[in-house]
Amino acid sequence: MSSEDTVIRISDVSKRYELYEKPRDRLKQFVLPRLRQLAGLKPRRYFQEFWALRDVSFEVKRGESVGIIGRNGSGKSTLLQIITGTLSPTSGSVYTRGRIAALLELGSGFNPDFSGRENVYLNGALLGFSSEEIDEKFDSIAAFADIGDHLDQPVKTYSSGMLVRLAFAVQVQAEPDILIIDEALAVGDALFQKRCFQRIDQLVSRGTSLLFVSHDQESVRTLTKRAVLLNRGNVVQWGASSDVVLEYRRLLHEEEAAYFGAVAKGLSAKAQEQSLMSVPPVHPAPDSGRLSEVSSSAEDPVPMPERLSFGDGGIRIVRVETLDGDLCPCSAFYPGDKLKIRIVCQSAMESKNLNVAVRLRNKEGVKVYSWGTLNQDMEIRAHHLSDKVFWAESVGINGELEVIFECDCNLGVNLYEVQAAVSYEATPDYMSQRMLHWMDEAAFFQVLMRKDEYFFGGVVDLKMKAEWNIE
């Protein structure tokens, strides 16, 4: 694409706020530095600087969908407000091209005393439409919002879900050049969210550029092609959404590990043993390496680069492979075949309370299924079965742990990625988890179809049956 296709260009954008300890310090800052400067004295600051954004740069092309992710306070909303023009940057420049429709704060741009109908015309006017143009679009807006008679009631009587329905309906019916969404859809029900995502897909296919902010990593991965990760106002990574989401998970893990580490240091030895957040001590074997030094052996079916993994270490995944029903290596399956996934781990510590898990994603990035040994353990405990519980098993220093997952392959035609994980679970219910090793792209397999023998469409085979009666 040429530079003419660029609809958003963010160049070295920074935003600084001045934080005052006392209200009178604001007045001092307004008056005293000037007086000191006139007197030949060095000016003094009466505030602390807070940089919400620091030297942020990226571009968005026409028809491109871009995600923005990061923890609360990372600068996402500040950046969106600067793009829409409701905030001015302290330094740097912002270029936008075309009409912008933004769903930022819930209900922003609505007059609470006006009815929904009146607010449609008000928002339409703000977007540059005449009354006649809004008249033409009104029925479509009302149908998409689907709030019935509430359309003629004051907006201040609306629920959060009704507010976002109406706001989204107005913005998307305007068919903007740039659509910006900041977590607003999270308050909608599942059916409305489905309709919203379908509408977003239509707009993007017609050339609308999308900026999408969400804490839902799967939505960012599947709805956007590229993404930017912000942390404390800085760009940590900019690139393919799948890579950025992985880096975000790694960042969350590191911050969580640092938090629990600080908590553990503040506990006494006795309290640490009783704490649900405590992690078993690591006793490395003489030749064991750090997690970052994990490398594939000659036996490994796929390489395991460091950039695709993270974790606290102590136990590492060394081999992941897909097998057929006879435990032979296999990378192509047909519906109804037996699919087995073998995960082999090596331990550099003594531990129990472990969980080994897999997650399957198709080539579009959609999470198809996730399951682990702890899921099986929870079922055993819930039904008071006599089966062995993996969570209670122990592994020693230099021990090897092998888990084989088995299922019938009822998936649709596609290429599938296997993600593998081993975690420490302080309680047998996923309520207190510490990730020891997570691995993206641990293995791949294909599902094919013999159309002349058995055929179905879609993501998964529901094994439907048909009955009929003809008279």
From TrEMBL:
One of its GO terms (molecular function) is ATP binding. The keyword Nucleotide-binding applies. InterPro entries: AAA+_ATPase, ABC_transporter-like_ATP-bd, ABC_transporter-like_CS, ABC_transpr_TagH-like, Bact_Polysacc_Export_ATP-bd, P-loop_NTPase, Wzt_C. Residues 278-305 are annotated as: Disordered. Keywords: ATP-binding, Nucleotide-binding, Transport. It holds the Pfam family Wzt_C. Residues 8-257 form the ABC transporter domain. Belongs to the ABC transporter superfamily. This is ABC transporter ATP-binding protein. It comes from Dyella ginsengisoli.
